[in-house]
UniProtKB/TrEMBL annotation, chains A, B:
Its cofactor is FAD. GO terms for biological process: 2-oxoglutarate metabolic process. This is 2-oxoglutarate dehydrogenase, E3 component, lipoamide dehydrogenase. It comes from Nitratidesulfovibrio vulgaris (strain ATCC 29579 / DSM 644 / CCUG 34227 / NCIMB 8303 / VKM B-1760 / Hildenborough) (Desulfovibrio vulgaris). Disulfide bonds join 40-45. The keyword Nucleus does not apply.
Length: 456, 456
């Protein structure tokens, strides 16, 4: 028997591909080691959101205490938070597996590797077998990256997966890496009383965003008591006498109860035999894909493994494209994978949001860029919460919106609205065609859209 | 000297009209008794949002206490919250007055009435004078409605304006009226420990929304400990021995420390002499307007007074239309005021949001309506906050979105996105063209858009 599609990995990309393929009447098998839902559900977006959501009252109370409008204390029970998180994740994982089976998908818990084009070798509790497939989709995702001298050791130096499961609140935490993972974990532990120190080799936090975003984010977190070291390179990070000890290249040291290594991720492609099916691996093992997300004839790579965008909703979107490509007979004349407007968020009390391009990306494409900005302090909802730091900026090319980014409390709520506006490349008159409800944080986006723009 | 435009009332509608008129090079005067910013800023949307925003930590903590993930107490200082609110409102009011003056607008603090077409009689500290105007815009707004036997007495029976200024937390509060004002005030005082009883003559809370919204809202608020009496008519409400005493028509009674009358609003048009300029007043004094928001030649009425939509952003939008109509020479051939997709929200811990039509409105227009729904419990962000009650529903006519409404925690964040979707009358394929970031509450809206729909 030959499957229409065999999928390696049941994260957001693989699961979506399987469900879409089954809905399209294709014969589908999906192989996963058992962590249905992938990094996002098990060790990524979802557990961090559960921990941040469950503790959201804390920073709001702290703001009011500073304003002297409230007194009080909140004591979180980390064990109970972890238990609730685990319950939710387990339930969702089981529900996903059930959904896959109920859709008529052959669900295999085991490991898989390619043994030539269209041949997938599966090892599970029942032994080894080979699946024949007209199409193979690699969706095995990524794992935390580490570097020599900085590797998590499971003692005081942890990766995000291990830190998500600690049951004792560290008094102090060093975070190496100023991206989403480090920032979100830092925010969570700061609410439990942990002293946070964050270290980023580049010159600012959130370094994939325009510089103004990361600079303001750093200022706001400093005000909340974080120690921030940007533009400093780490020479070593290890457990010394039970504590995490970080040494900078300039010889200075930091010591804390725990350290989190969160310096990016690498593709989970080792040992998959992708080369046997004609795939090319780049750099740390990223799968090279063409315009149709094909790594070789009949071999697609979606989600983190192709290195395009390491976000769950990007994998989901690529999955839909690939199944539609397969279902339509992989017509080579079909148009390639569209570069959609990609939303991204860093969650927490102080958030970062972007839809569309950065200034650097637009300039690199040869565009003249104009920027218009609104400050959150002018917005009544930001005032109402006492969370007035931050801003929203809009990037314009020839009078059309090409990127929207923001930093501040609650700005993740604007991300889909911003995605629609950038996708449709709104002009001024489009903004005037919509009534923005008053009072909303959305009005800060309206204000940014209507503010006078400056050439970058 | 003849003004191009004289505006009565400096609330959201009047102020916007003045600024737009000045920007268009018109000669403008605006007359207000002194409460620049109107009801919205001084006694409406803004003070309620400041009180709700400042106390938002409380219900979030209560949720976690029920989940046994947190312990703690928060004590709000009502005097300090009131002081912060007053400071912000005063500052914003002064900033608005300054902005009007700096735009070259003649700003008059006083009372005004019409004395025939194009003649406005103004009384201020310097006496009485008459202004000649090519166009007059009435934007005097509305005031809380009251009824015989139920009138606020300033003792235990208060209107929303008076309740917004109390400095002692009542142990118990009866709210008459299940609309936005009553619900928001109830939410605020419940956070301070006040026991809330809400009374609504119609069969559900939020009675301007589809029945399912108000029914679910009632269930969620009951779970939070509110006593809810719907479908019961009030015979009398008065202060008896310092307490508020409510008697239902069936003879049963309720007693509480305070009562809030929040049963709607009436237009502030008494004594304005509108009839002298040819206007027709309807019902409680609403100004009848034509397709161009004209009450008579050269006399416009915008905002609450025309009774179309009692919302600040509706007044703002009407102001822009009217000034554009005046600036273009009031060409009678110009198209009339468009019926824009109107967003509305009820704010608080459990919110209500709508953009576009209700089922009843669509059915009344002769449409076949289909409804698709998603429950918030399936959304990971709702799960993260432990606020899983509520849902989002989408109304479809011939495959196009015509209305979106929602009830639950955080749903006000979706209102502008919903407004855009309804304005553009999205179809299924439009939803697929946008990547919804994961995880966001926005995905619950995506799920509602993509859910199978049922004929109403």
């Amino acid at each position: 028997m030959t499957y229409d599609v065999v999928i390696l990995g049941a994260g957001p990309g693989g699961s979506r591909a399987a469900l879409e393929a089954a809905a399209a009447g294709l014969r589908v098998a999906i192989v996963d080691k058992g962590s249905f839902g992938g990094t996002c559900l098990n060790w990524g977006c979802i557990p961090t959101k559960l921990l941040l959501g469950g503790t959201a009252a804390h920073p709001l109370l702290e703001v009011q205490k500073k304003l002297k409008t409230a007194q009080g204390t909140i004591d979180f029970d980390l064990t109970a938070l972890q238990a609730r998180k685990t319950r939710f994740i387990n339930g969702t994982r089981q529900a996903l597996e059930k959904q896959l089976r109920q859709a008529g998908i052959e669900v295999i818990t085991g490991t898989a590797r390619l043994a030539g084009p269209g041949h997938v070798e599966v090892v599970d509790g029942e032994g080894t077998r080979e699946l024949a497939a007209r199409n193979v989709i690699v969706a095995t995702g990524s794992v935390p990256a580490s570097f020599p001298g900085l590797a998590p050791d499971g003692e005081a130096v942890l990766d995000s997966t291990a830190l998500l499961d600690v049951t004792e609140v560290p008094d102090s935490l060093i975070i190496v890496g100023g991206g989403a993972i480090g920032l979100e974990m830092g925010d969570f532990f700061s609410r439990l009383g942990t002293a946070i120190t964050i270290v980023e080799g580049l010159d600012r936090l959130a370094p994939t965003e325009d510089p103004e975003i990361g600079q303001t984010l750093g200022k706001l977190l400093k005000r909340e008591g974080w120690a921030i070291h940007t533009g400093r390179r780490v020479a070593s990070l290890s457990t010394v006498e039970g504590k995490a000890q970080l040494r900078f290249e300039d010889g200075t040291e930091l010591v804390a109860d725990k350290a989190l290594m969160a310096v990016g991720r690498r593709p989970a492609t080792a040992g998959l035999g992708l080369e046997t099916a004609g795939a090319t691996l780049l750099g740390a093992g990223w799968v090279e894909t063409n315009d149709h997300l094909l790594a070789a004839p009949g071999l697609y790579a979606i989600g983190d493994v192709n290195g395009r965008t390491l976000l769950a909703h990007a994998a989901d979107h690529q999955a839909r494209f690939v199944i539609s490509h397969i279902a339509s007979g992989s017509a080579s004349s079909a148009s390639g994978y569209p570069a959609p407007v990609m939303p991204s968020c860093i969650y927490g009390h102080t958030e970062v949001m972007r839809a569309g391009a950065t200034v650097a990306e637009l300039v690199a494409s040869g565009h003249d860029v104009h920027v218009s900005t609104s400050q959150l302090i002018a917005n009544p909802i930001a005032q109402a919460y006492g969370t007035t730091g931050g801003f929203i900026r809009v990037l314009w090319v020839e009078g059309q919106v090409r990127g929207i980014s923001a930093v501040g409390h609650g700005v993740s709520h604007l991300v889909t609205l911003a995605t629609v506006i950038v996708s449709q490349r709104w002009r001024w008159e489009d903004v005037h065609g919509i009534i923005f409800a008053h009072p909303t944080l959305d009005e800060a986006l309206e204000a940014a859209l209507l503010a006078p723009s400056q050439k970058v």
